């Protein structure tokens, strides 16, 4: 009989039917709230990604605390999605909640710096290294602005990204490799520009491909995650990051490291843990404890080059910044997160828990003999429904099994564990308990028993 990643199609169909029926049966209040209130939203949800959860309809959340989320039907879910990394340090960390309460009485946005602004700057340098920072609301914006600086200082046009990458909804990065050529991704809505004139896609771990692209002299920047976390989870091969650094210097391209997800690696992110030296560092999502903030920083050297460029720039819009960016609430939350939440002790707990989780999932996979594997980057764990390791975005795309993965996600949700949609990602926060991890492992094991029966 036909199989998907080792699972017989008829088993998968039966499992999906059972789990879908169970979800419908057990979530009447979520369903009713959506039926009552969804009409005022385009497509029924306030942000269309919410339709992409692998359940017949999205859960409606009631509240969340620590690593637990409660839905309208009163299920207390172990949350390993954590807002897809926005809440990697747990929901409403106490120091952040206190900072919000304090700032809430003192004004929410003024387009002026505060004393906390300067405290946050010191903390950013202490945490991430010596950079000259700017503050944005989203990692998408931070990447967009970083790319502008890179183009400005190099006078070049193109960004080099890796096939299968994701850096937010930055148009220029929305390209893919097809038969060795760069083209726009087919699903883009309302796209007019020819993205291949602004970007080049190369396979991750392909040093020769990177060098060939750089040798055209058109590349302003290499924009990469330290680990490809948005394409299953593809680890850099030994020497890959060193090669990116050496080649980007040789060919005069700016090296931008997007640590938005790999902040899971340890204090200061993957680059700090592994001694990388980017020209621009980008961190978003959880950097201010779950409130909308991203930071991007230039090395002092690049900062000086940008200042020189700025001195010659005609007056007028720069194309960077947004009105609410760098507001006082962001600095209150940044200070609280960097000083009291993102601690060595927190990371030690995350690392320990994630190790336990990865080991438990791998054991379940081995027990049923599934041709799957598990990858971990610090607190971030992913199961992949194919043998590993994967080397690049093309291999990751081939490994992706949306229907099977959706079935596992739904099965986990029905058993009390929420994991991230779009990938098979699980995060262990400083507030995640061992028993939550063990429940997730047991649920995963039970699901595999069922699928591989
Ligand atoms: N960079 C990376 C590596 C990401 O994974 C994401 C979002 N998944 C972003 C940037 C964009 O973040 P945001 O959607 O908050 O702008």
From TrEMBL:
GO molecular function: glutamate-1-semialdehyde 2,1-aminomutase activity; pyridoxal phosphate binding; transaminase activity
Protein's recorded name: Glutamate-1-semialdehyde 2,1-aminomutase
Record's signal peptide: none
Annotated InterPro entries: Aminotrans_3, PyrdxlP-dep_Trfase, PyrdxlP-dep_Trfase_major, PyrdxlP-dep_Trfase_small
Organism in which the protein naturally occurs: Cereibacter sphaeroides (strain ATCC 17023 / DSM 158 / JCM 6121 / CCUG 31486 / LMG 2827 / NBRC 12203 / NCIMB 8253 / ATH 2.4.1.)
Alphabetic keyword roster: Isomerase, Pyridoxal phosphate
PANTHER family in alphabetical order: GLUTAMATE-1-SEMIALDEHYDE 2,1-AMINOMUTASE, GLUTAMATE-1-SEMIALDEHYDE 2,1-AMINOMUTASE 1, CHLOROPLASTIC-RELATED
TM stretches of this protein: none
SUPFAM superfamilies documented for this protein: PLP-dependent transferases (SSF53383)
Acyltransferase keyword on record: no
Cofactor: pyridoxal 5'-phosphate
EC number: 5.4.3.8
Gene3D superfamilies with a match to the protein in the record: Aspartate Aminotransferase, domain 1 (3.90.1150.10), Type I PLP-dependent aspartate aminotransferase-like (Major domain) (3.40.640.10)
Enzyme class: isomerase
The family this protein is said to belong to: Belongs to the class-III pyridoxal-phosphate-dependent aminotransferase family.
